[in-house]
Amino acid sequence: MARSRILPVTLIVLALGAGAGAYVWQQQRQEAAPAERNAAQTTPGQPGGRGRGGIAVPVTVAAAAQKDLPLTLDALGTVQALNSVTVRSQVTGQLTEVLFREGQEVKTGDVLARIDDRTYVAALAQAQAKKAYDQAQLENARTDLRRYQGLLAANGVTRQQVDTQRAQVAMYEAQVAQDQAAIDTAKTQLDYTTIRAPIEGRVGLRQVDPGNLISTGDTTGIVSITQMRPIGVSFTIPQAELPRLRRAMAAGPVIVETIPGTGGTASQPVSQPEAPTRGTVMTVDNQVDSATGTVKVKAVFPNEDTRLWPGAFVSLRLQIETVPDATVVPLVAVQQGPNGAFAFVAKADNTVEQRPLVLGAVTRTEAAIHEGLKPGERVVTSGALRLNPGSRIDIAEGAAPGSPTGSPTAPTDRPGGQPPRSRPRQAAEASERSQP
Questions:
Q1: Beta bridge partners of 355
Q2: Span 91-115+193-225: which CATH code?
Q3: Among 29, 111, 134, 174, which has the highest number of CB atoms less than 10 A from its own CB?
Q4: Can you identify the CATH homologous superfamily of domain 117-192?
Q5: What is the 3-state secondary structure (H, E, C) of 54-121?
Q6: Whether the predicted pLDDT of 47 surpasses 60
């Protein structure tokens, strides 16, 4: 009886012991797995060296070049017409003709509209008749004056009569001059009935239809005319950039270019033409806005193809300085570490060297190197996150990422400083550091 009870208890104890042993073995194997993987990836004699003496890391490289590095400044501007006119009537009358098409290009002096001129023709005729009447009286007074002067020599009249007649002639002369002024006024009023373009430009939308009574008090006007060639662009720059811009303006015309792919409004940008439009800086405002710390600048563009439209927003790029004979590398080749900027330099034996750098001017795509590189040395432009000093590399063929294609610079260039670290690069570095 007692032996039959002891046997099941023994079996239960053995089963629990076997289960505990299996659990402990499984935990130890899981803890040892990362170490085994690291050991498999690490070459003997090169502990922890990803790409060191083992599998070569594929990278792209670019050679440091010695050239003039243009520094640019980017800004957001608003297109403004240099001249804009609202055409209003200078007399009151019925609009009888409209001789322009909406959107038409007009020149100075082109007839735009006509007003009923019958009242003004009659006023001119009345002024001319009044002058003729007074002119006849003037001639009669002059004849009497000559007669009195002859009688005065023969003592036929007194001197007082001669003086009175002379004054009468002067009065009629003044009256005739007044009549002439009235005629000129009537002619001007009559000329106002023919409305002409005061400037050259593009006609907008018509505000008044023929048959309406218009007057000098109308605020909306008949139509607006906007000068399109040339055209202005107003923008602001930080006050810290003002000395550089003024030095550039003193040296010669400062070129301004529109950046393709921008424009329209702030909420709905419209694509710009593929080719940028070029202009020059015209003037700088006479004061800095204390609220924003910026200063207004105005540029002028020929705008022969009317790509720039009044009221549109455009992104601009100003070339305000040039660094001569600079050692230049793509900005993507410049890394940031605890001790500052550095780059991986490709050596002849297909390994890399971590080289500290002293940066000069920095653009969005390129960086000038004061110390640390020589022209012709190759720097790694992609794949640097997997490299350590001495790592083997496999240089891929093709263009290096971030190398300039076309324009050598990009916006918001700085005369010196650290290149910005992009969020994707920071995330990749953090991911690599977190790996066992």
A1: 343
A2: 2.40.50.100
A3: 134
A4: Helix hairpin bin (1.10.287.470)
A5: CCCEEEEEEECEEEEEEEEEEEEEEEECCCEEEECCCCCEEEEEECCCCCCEECCCCEEEEECCHHHH
A6: no
Per-residue tokens: 199: 């400037």
Interatomic CA distance for residues 82 and 360, integer angstroms: 39
Which helix H or strand E contains 355, and what residues bound it? strand 352-356
Average pLDDT over residues 32-51: 43
Gap between the Cα atoms of 436 and 430, Å rounded:
12
**pLDDT score of 408 more than 90:** no
CB 183 within 8 A of CB 67: no
* Cβ atoms 214, 89 nearer than 8 A: yes
**H or E segment to which residue 196 belongs:** strand 194-196
Superfamily covering domain 74-82+226-322? Efflux pump adaptor protein, beta barrel domain (2.40.30.170)
> Which pLDDT band holds residue 355 (cuts at 50, 70, 90)?
very high
DSSP secondary structure string for all residues of 150-164: HHHHTTSS-HHHHHH
Cα–Cα distance for residue pair 178/135, rounded to 1 Å = 11
Q: Please determine, looking at this structure, whether the domain spanning 57-68+325-434 carries the CATH number 3.30.460.10.
A: no
Q: Find tokens 């002293």 and name the residue.
A: 358
Query: How confident is the prediction for the chain on average, in pLDDT?
Result: 83
pLDDT at 44 over 80: no
pLDDT tens for residues 140-167?
A: 999 999 998 888 888 888 899 999 999 9
80 exposure class (CB count in 10 Å sphere: 0-12, 13-18, 19+): middle
- Say if CB 73 and CB 361 are below 8 A apart: no
Residue 223's beta-bridge partner residues? 87
Which pLDDT tens digit goes with each residue over 67-96? Answer: 999 999 999 999 999 999 999 999 999 999
Hunting for tokens 């002891």 — which residue is that? Answer: 6
In the chain, where are the structural domains located?
Answer: 57-68+325-434, 74-82+226-322, 91-115+193-225, 117-192
